Amino acid sequence: MSTPTTGLREQKKKQTRRTISDHATRLFLERGFDRVTIAEVAAAAGVAKMTVTNYFPRKEDLALDLHEEFVTGPARAVAGRAPGESALAALHRTLLDSVRRHDPVIGFSGPGFARMVTDSPVLLARLREFHEQREAALAAVLAEETGAGPHDVRPRVAAAQLAGAHRVLFDETLRRTLEGQDDERIAAAVTDAAHAAFALLEPALGDYAVRRPEPH
């Protein structure tokens, strides 16, 4: 199979996924997540029901389409930290960058989307799973980066604290969104909250998982 053909096929898959997701989001916002069926999403997107489930095995993932970015974000930030930079500093830096960009992954979703999520027990439960998966992914990277043994609890304890800070800041963003605050006001408040949260963790984790400088 030629590379151009493969590229076109992948592009078509991405477009189909985006189309399904866009139609699903529109229906969920209009009627509420729990009142929309997979069959209705398929009809709106002009695809078979099986096509929807092939791309989105769980209905919740139609609404929470940024699952992979949400779960892997902190782990990727730690893995890509600069020489001399600790895991704490890398996560602080990348979070502030996401706040500046009003990144939907960290909660800048708009009031309609925020209400849709908080009004659905199913979506709230799925979001809790994402938080747990994110903590586990972060713990795995911290263990690898520090050379921790399989029974060393330090990577898991550090991940629990770091992911906990992210979770609190996500909830703060969601709360302010539901109150109707605009993105600029939310960003200013969450930036201050992030500084406070990471300062609180600094005494315990400021020297943890610092990347060694590259040898010359």
From TrEMBL:
<dbReference type="InterPro" id="IPR001647">
    <property type="entry name" value="HTH_TetR"/>
</dbReference>
<protein>
    <submittedName>
        <fullName>TetR family transcriptional regulator</fullName>
    </submittedName>
</protein>
<keyword id="KW-0804">Transcription</keyword>
<feature type="domain" description="HTH tetR-type">
    <location>
        <begin position="14"/>
        <end position="74"/>
    </location>
</feature>
<dbReference type="InterPro" id="IPR050109">
    <property type="entry name" value="HTH-type_TetR-like_transc_reg"/>
</dbReference>
<dbReference type="Pfam" id="PF00440">
    <property type="entry name" value="TetR_N"/>
</dbReference>
<feature type="DNA-binding region" description="H-T-H motif">
    <location>
        <begin position="37"/>
        <end position="56"/>
    </location>
</feature>
<keyword id="KW-0805">Transcription regulation</keyword>
<keyword id="KW-0238">DNA-binding</keyword>
<dbReference type="InterPro" id="IPR009057">
    <property type="entry name" value="Homeodomain-like_sf"/>
</dbReference>
